[in-house]
Amino acid sequence: MAPLHLFFTACSVVLGAQALTVSSSAARRHAELAPRVTGCAINPTSTSVPTPCGTSDVAYDVPEKDLYDNIFCANGVDNISNPILLVPGIGAGGDTYTNGYQKLLTNLGYDVCYVSPPRYMLDDEQDNAQYVAYALNMIYSKTNAALPVLGYSGGNAAIQWALTFWPSTRTSAKQFIALAGPFQGTIIGKVYEAGQLDTTTGSIRQLTTGSKFLAALKSKGGDYNWVPTTSIYSHTDDVLQPEPGPNDPSAVSFVGGSRTGNVFIQQFCPGLPVLHSGFPFLNFSYQVTSLALSSSAKFVDPKDVPALNIPCNLDGATGLSTGDVAKVFASTVAAASRVADTVLYGRLSEPDLKSYVASYPDNAVHD
Ligand SMILES: *[C@@H]1O[C@H](CO)[C@@H](O)[C@H](O)[C@H]1NC(C)=O
Ligand SMILES: *[C@@H]1O[C@H](CO)[C@@H](O)[C@H](O)[C@H]1NC(C)=O
What we know:
Blueprint: H1 11-15, H2 64-69, E1 71-73, E2 83-87, H3 95-98, H4 101-107, E3 111-115, H5 125-143, E4 147-152, H6 155-165, H7 169-172, E5 173-179, H8 188-194, H9 202-206, H10 212-219, E6 229-233, E7 260-264, H11 265-268, H12 283-294, H13 322-340, H14 355-359
Parallel strand pairs: 2-3, 2-4, 4-5, 5-6, 6-7
Antiparallel strand pairs: 1-3
Helix pairs in contact: 5-6
């Protein structure tokens, strides 16, 4: 088996240690309103690519049936009310959430939906993003109401890519909550590229510092909030580095913009050794998520975190049993082993950028 220095989902399994706002620069003021969702016809059984919902959206290249069939909702896709969309990390599927956020968010009254793009998000993030964009617009078309979207790890970059290149999703998405999002790329990926660890897959290379994917995301404005955004991250993340101090724009998980709350855990819990695998069950990340969902601003201002009185521990969220937490943790182990076994899928270099990227306007400015 490939060396188990695992990536994007569960390095901490190997390390075994945790079983368990800077606002926009003046140059980038918002100039455009998000285009509306127009004529968003949904054809669940179509084997053609769907027509994008918005006039500024890029084209899909996955057949609509595949996109549609990839959307899973707790009460069925024909019976959605008060939805939230969850997007897993690299190497993972819906199992990341089944025993964790799905339970917690159901208790908050949400109808939990998720996407689980093929090959556990290990392929091209640009394709993963198509699943996210389509799901946001499809669910919106059923309820006529904007819905929150939450991602873990590499899923967050797929969400931000969807919001960047399918502007109609900025109408469909009410807010974005990112648990350990690799928006600026992680240097840890470099370690994998450097030596014998070159079994890294397409999406991992795309989320490594210096990738074409991340440069494109940034140049099109995807390093800023398109919708109210809460980004929660940890100084001691063993997969995403660097994650320096609060409000440091060089952090992997930093998102710019006046509607972003960058929640740096150690600002509130100095020294708390939160690892990457902790985010899908830790009480801290869940309490901040819960505040983001209930806040009228639709994101968490870090100065409102102390009032939550979250104990500085590594416990699972209140509402999850010890067994639930063990199952969520097991899902990160499974994800990690899928990442480790990517040699089975063959070695992939960074996927080429889709042709739409070059022609898409640069720096679509927003706040
Ligand atoms: C629709 O979902 C609700 C829960 O929101 C459930 O009680 C009901 O049985 C579901 N109806 C159908 C037809 O599945
Ligand atoms: C989670 O945080 C809340 C405060 O936001 C606190 O009341 C609760 O006791 C905490 N749960 C655990 C398991 O630490």
